[in-house]
């Protein structure tokens, strides 16, 4: 069908494919959440309700896109790992990035009243997003290790910082000065001796972040059945004449999955060795 004389402008829309055979990590991050958290009185240093809301939005994204196998969240950010061989939207960068960021944002807003029922939104929250490609499984592991190490560093600092302010009566300027140049062990010691806080007693959600893992439910063994409905796909055995009737018919095995929420270590080998499917094809 011939287009209008204006249709040539479509040619200015350039393809933006993401390199095949690479791992895709998409990260969304709250826009100006320093202000959003202040304006909506988030608890310091961690607001359980706000973090659960982030988890909910991430779960909604994973329910929409089954090729996301893993997500990691802390503070106002969430990272999503796609199956290496994903062909979602033909790996078009803008389509994937904008749709995921949009679903995450709308879910965050839509579900806000469930988690913060007494805090009406004063203005619309928003998130930025980016996609980074990683060539190897090692890079992917290091990416998630980087984010979890960041969670730990930030949480340790914020926990002792707000203890100094809220329990120790220091101003925020004084608390920053108190902590300047301190190493991790000094912060642990300060928290315990001055405020009786044993860091390891703090909720693992705050110390480790939120990990959402897609787990596969093993399919029930099924007897050979004749194709009876549209759900069943016919598979022609290799080498068979494609014009002849297929000799074998197999059920189109639909793998059912569920999403597990964890707050555990993912820097060590144990997490990945127990879930080899995360870094497979
Ligand atoms: N009180 C409180 N604040 C939080 C919590 N989670 C996130 N925040 C705030 O959100 C900020 C997130 O950091 P950034 O993403 O670097 O800051 P930002 O203001 O969102 O800036 P941009 O991402 O560059 O737009 C933190 O610095 C906190 O101020 C929380 O659980 N409690
Ligand atoms: Mg932010």
TrEMBL record:
GTP binds at residues 29-34, 75-76. Residues 139-267 form the Thg1 C-terminal domain. Pfam families: Thg1, Thg1C. It comes from the Eukaryota. Mg(2+) 2 binds at residues 29, 76. The keyword Cytoplasm does not apply. Residues 7-135 form the tRNAHis guanylyltransferase catalytic domain. It is an enzyme of class 2 (transferase). GO terms for biological process: tRNA modification. Its cofactor is Mg(2+). GO terms for molecular function: GTP binding; magnesium ion binding; tRNA guanylyltransferase activity. Its EC number is 2.7.7.79. Mg(2+) 1 binds at residues 29-30, 76. Keywords: GTP-binding, Magnesium, Metal-binding, Nucleotide-binding, Nucleotidyltransferase, Transferase, tRNA processing. Binds 2 magnesium ions per subunit. It catalyses: a 5'-end ribonucleotide-tRNA(His) + GTP + ATP + H2O = a 5'-end phospho-guanosine-ribonucleotide-tRNA(His) + AMP + 2 diphosphate + H(+). Belongs to the tRNA(His) guanylyltransferase family. Adds a GMP to the 5'-end of tRNA(His) after transcription and RNase P cleavage. PANTHER family: TRNA(HIS) GUANYLYLTRANSFERASE-RELATED. This is tRNA(His) guanylyltransferase. It comes from Grifola frondosa (Maitake). The gene is Thg1l.
